[in-house]
Write a structure and sequence with these properties.
48% of the residues lie in helices and 2% in strands. It is mainly α. It has a domain of 94 residues: Orthogonal Bundle (Cytochrome Bc1 Complex, Chain D, domain 2), CATH 1.10.760. A two-stranded antiparallel ribbon has the order 1-2. Strand 1 and strand 2 form a beta hairpin. It starts with a helix and ends in a 17-residue tail after the last helix.
């Protein structure tokens, strides 16, 4: 059957039952209205706006008082020193827990991830983003920062300072203190003397230096114009 025959057959059916078609039209209209009434646009989400009235609760408010003793997640800071780096509102120079070698290793890891892009691996303020045009931070080896209390660095990591954003979301309070411990190690590495080295370790270093010198003693520098050997 061709297209023309199909159209003819359809006309015959419709023409044969005009009453059925007339009855179907109101039904289609009712269904269309019902479907459109169920539409829920994204801008009209099924939620309460702030301070919007509600018929569900007896006080007529959608926002209900918090249960007594409720603490927002992440906001229970009972240890002021650990959470803020301060005691009685002032930067403290003591750590809230004893620093172990594992803590120092963890601090180095966190420092290299979050701090070194700006401050550099050695804390001199020459990280890769600084080399590409970002504002240079001060060196950790400057007198001002070497003499700053440990809690000062925790406060800066927690709240940010100048061009530096805060890192409270990325770094936990415990890890902030571990990073400070590693910063102190970096500062000591640039200012330390042999008097700071334990006697047993100093003996090992001296033995290693002696083993590195040739048996005949260090070679004399080549004379001017003479090729080095």
């Amino acid at each position: 059957m061709g297209p023309r025959s199909k159209r003819a057959g359809l006309s015959l059916v419709v023409g044969a039952r005009p009453g059925l078609l007339a009855w179907a039209r109101p039904g289609v209209l009712v269904v269309a209205i019902a479907v459109s009434a169920c539409r829920q646009d994204m801008h009209d989400a099924p939620r309460y706006d702030p301070l919007e009235a509600s018929t569900i609760f007896r006080n007529g408010a959608s926002a209900q008082p918090l249960v007594e003793g409720t603490v927002a997640r992440g906001d229970l800071n009972q240890d002021e020193l650990l959470a803020t780096g301060k005691v009685n509102g002032q930067p403290a120079d003591q750590f809230p827990f004893a620093i172990t070698r594992a803590d120092l290793d963890r601090g180095e890891e966190r420092f290299n991830i979050y701090c070194s892009p700006c401050h550099g691996r050695t804390g001199e303020g020459n990280g890769m983003v600084v080399q590409r045009g970002y504002r240079q931070p001060p060196s950790y080896h400057a007198d001002r920062l070497r003499q700053s209390p440990a809690g000062y660095f925790v406060d800066v990591m927690t709240n940010g300072f100048g061009a530096m954003p805060d890192y409270r979301a990325q770094i936990t309070p415990d890890d902030r203190w571990r990073i400070v411990a590693y910063i102190r190690a970096l500062q000591l590495s640039q200012q330390g003397t042999t008097a700071d080295v334990p006697a047993a370790e100093l003996t090992k270093l001296e033995a290693a230096d002696a083993a590195a010198v040739p048996a005949g003693g260090p070679e004399a520098p080549a004379a001017a114009g003479e090729p080095a050997k």
